[in-house]
Amino acid sequence: MSYRIDYQKIKYAIAIALYSCVGAFYGQPLIHKNDNALNIIVTVFSILAGFLVAIITVIGDPKSLPSGSWRRARLGSEVLYNRLTRHRLLFLMYLTTLLLIFVATLLKNKYPLVDLWIERIYLFFAIAAFSLSFQLPTSLMNLHKERIENEIESRREQESDKLP
């Protein structure tokens, strides 16, 4: 099996990593000792994590596979596995952000240099994960569009089988 490299996705990932690094470095003073900002981040990522679990559940439904032969279903399963992998990684980014915020809260004011770097790291993950989350509605819409197209194709095949 050969994989095609998607250079657009690589450029997008690099851009998000760079923006997240810059945002974490310059944004850290804004969140340092700012409990309101911390509460907002925790709330947003808790909600996004729940939303993403729902999306993963919808994507993982076997009804998402194209109808027809097993070969066609196999080809469609690769697309679904890739989507599930990307969504799983995004979910792990959400959880990593929440875990780092928890660690930062436990270590608060005990080790100033550690506080500084943990804040930068969780802000990096927060910016990156939030940026990647903008793709979720499009992903969900594309999934439903594919399901509709598969249903139309299935009905077309059924009608062509009935013709004499």
Write the layout of secondary structure elements.
Layout: H1 7-31, H2 35-59, H3 70-107, H4 112-133, H5 136-162
Helix pairs in contact: 1-4, 2-3, 3-4
Tell me what the structure shows:
The chain is an all-alpha fold and 164 residues long. It has 5 helices and no strands. Helix 2 runs antiparallel to helix 3 and helix 3 runs antiparallel to helix 4 (112-133). The mean pLDDT is 85.
Number of helices: 5
Low-confidence stretches: none
Q: How would you characterize the largest beta sheet?
A: none
* E-strand count: 0
The helix content, as a percent range, equals: over 70%
Percent range for β-strand residues: under 5%
What number is the mean pLDDT? 85
The CA-CA distance between the termini, in Å, is 40 Å
Order of helices and strands: HHHHH
Report the C-alpha radius of gyration, rounded: 21 Å
Helix/strand/pairing category: mainly alpha
